[in-house]
Amino acid sequence: MITGRTAIVTGAGNGLGHAITNHLTTEGARVILTGRDRAKLERAAAEIGGDTRVETVDTASPASVAELASALADEEVSILVNNAGIA
What we know:
The chain is built from three helices and four strands. By secondary structure, the protein is an alpha/beta fold. Strand 1 (6-10), helix 1 (15-26) and strand 2 (30-35) form a beta-alpha-beta unit.
């Protein structure tokens, strides 16, 4: 079960990441939506509802990923969906 667990979804602003985030929140997870476009992430979080949080990160940048890790240091993350990418 994923109820009460915290998940991070990269590329959560649209497409598959948005759908995954929606499913996880429906199943009771707390989801941290990540991506490069904060406005897009905030729109997705508002549309999905549930227990969500937005954090901007560029997964192609080690410094940006390190900043995200620092911001989430106190979180107990048990699910990671590494969805970011460009087709």
